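User: Can you recover a sequence for this backbone? Please restate the input before giving your answer.

Assistant: Of course. Working from this structure:
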């Protein structure tokens, strides 16, 4: 006996395929949603952890900034104290500078040179005097430049020939000079300040 299926089997097969497709699609969407949610939660956790780290870092930065300000203030105070200390030391050392100046002028003054006036402004000393010749002035400049620890950088400002009366009818030709020289502080001198202050009394001025 021959059996003939008159039911729409093709339609039923297509329906089953559609149902399987929709089920697969729903399952894929569900799995994708679960994976996306897990990834989202993981990123949120990472962001929250990083934000916590950032907050800690910001707190540490603020604390360090406060310490840096305190250190800067301390450094400023230390610099001011050192400046005041240096000023006091300079004042103490400068008390003996006139003595050093007069001692050095007496030591370095050649024969035939006479100092008529002496003026000091800060570290600059100006000397005006009379010499028997230009060679005497040159010798004084060499002595001040090479032989003195307390006088430095002598400079001849002016030298002018003149005459001086040595008797009723006799005149002698002389050189009137003006010299500028720098007085060296005790802290910058080649030898200790006590060496000069403890030295014996200066000899009488040379004629």
């Amino acid at each position: 006996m021959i059996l003939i299926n008159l039911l729409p089997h093709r339609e039923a097969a297509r329906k089953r395929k559609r149902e399987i497709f929709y089920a697969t699609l729903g399952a894929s969407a569900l799995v994708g949603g679960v994976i996306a949610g897990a990834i989202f939660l993981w990123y949120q956790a990472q962001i929250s952890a990083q934000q916590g780290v950032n907050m800690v870092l910001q707190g540490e930065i603020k604390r360090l900034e406060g310490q840096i300000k305190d250190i800067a203030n301390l450094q400023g105070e230390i610099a001011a104290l050192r400046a005041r200390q240096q000023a006091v030391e300079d004042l103490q050392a400068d008390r003996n500078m006139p003595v050093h100046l007069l001692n050095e002028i007496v030591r370095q003054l050649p024969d035939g040179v006479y100092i008529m006036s002496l003026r000091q402004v800060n570290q600059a000393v100006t000397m005006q005097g009379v010499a028997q010749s230009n060679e005497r002035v040159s010798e004084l400049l060499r002595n001040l430049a090479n032989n003195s620890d307390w006088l430095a950088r002598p400079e001849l400002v002016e030298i002018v020939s003149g005459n001086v009366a040595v008797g009723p009818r006799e005149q002698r030709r002389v050189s009137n000079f003006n010299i500028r020289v720098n007085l060296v502080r005790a802290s910058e001198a080649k030898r200790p300040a006590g060496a000069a202050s403890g030295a014996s009394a200066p000899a009488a001025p040379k004629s």
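That completes the design. The two ends are 166 Å apart (CA to CA).
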